[in-house]
Structures are given as structure tokens and as C-alpha cells.
Amino acid sequence: MRNQIDLLAAVTVLGVLEQAYFTLQVIYARRKFKISPPETTGHPEFERIFRAQVNCSEYFPIFVSLLWVAGIFFHQGVAAVCGLLYLYTRFKYFQGYAVAAQGRLGPMYASAWLLWLLLGLAVAGLLAHFLLPGSSTWMAALMQPLQLLSAW
């Protein structure tokens, strides 16, 4: 069973580490600009870093849920690749937002697109599971080219 969810688990842990990194950046910005909790306003750079961290945290439960449902019911490898791309776009979002508010836009759209993709994969996998007789055979045939690529 572990080999059926190992990629999902790895992407999840990587995502948790990314969230920890974002939180540490807020702590460093608080120290740099001398802004004590619970204050959330102050220097514009601090406010951008704080907002970037909060925005990423707000979407993290949605991301993890879709990652696991898509990975279990559609294909682990495809979901894991989407998950890695999502984490990369959120990292770029954080970096861009920390510099300027406009710097967040491209990565924000890319990460939203990836969430929609994960949602589509999750829905497709669930529909196949519940509605198609022998959906495991159908999904195996559909995923065979992807499995060949992942073995490579």
C-alpha cells in the first residue's frame, strides 16, 4: 500500500515544509521591521510578506485535499506532478509578492489553474470509481502511457 501513496506523502511533506518556510519569513520580517504580534500592519514590505504567507496558508487545505483525492482516485503520479508544480508556483507567488504586489499575479494564476486541474482529476477519478463498472480496468488502460513515463 505504501507504494500507492508514497509520492502523495512526499509532496504533502514538501508542502508542509514550504508552509513552515513562509511562516519563518514572516517571523524574520517582524524582527527586521520591529513589528510585534498581534500587529499585522507596518512597513509595506512586512505587509506584503505577511499577506503572501496568509494567502498561501488559506489555500493549503484545499490543495492537500485535492492532491490526495486526485492521487488516490485518478493517478498518483499525475497528481504528484501537479502538486509539485503547484508548490513551485506558490513559492514564486510568495517571492513575487514579497517584492511587489504585482509580482504575485502570474504565479497566482498558474497556481489557480493547477488547483482547477487537480479538481478536474479528482472529479474524473471519483466519477470513474462510482459510475463505471470495472473502472479500475478502464483507468488502468487510460493510465498505461503515464505509467510507462513514470517508470522511465
Account of the 3D structure:
The protein starts with a helix and ends with a helix. It is 86% helix and 0% strand. The chain is elongated. With 152 residues, it is mostly helical. It has five helices and no strands.
Sheet with the most strands, sense and barrel status: none
From the N-terminal CA to the C-terminal CA, the straight-line distance is 21 Å
Estimated radius of gyration: 18 Å
Bin the strand percentage: under 5%
The total count of strands amounts to: 0
Secondary-structure element series: HHHHH
User: Helix share of residues?
Assistant: over 70%
Uncertain spans: none
Describe the oligomeric state of these chains in a short phrase.
single chain
What does the average pLDDT come to?
92
Q: How many DSSP helices?
A: 5
Give the overall silhouette: elongated
Structural class by sheet pairing and helices: mainly alpha
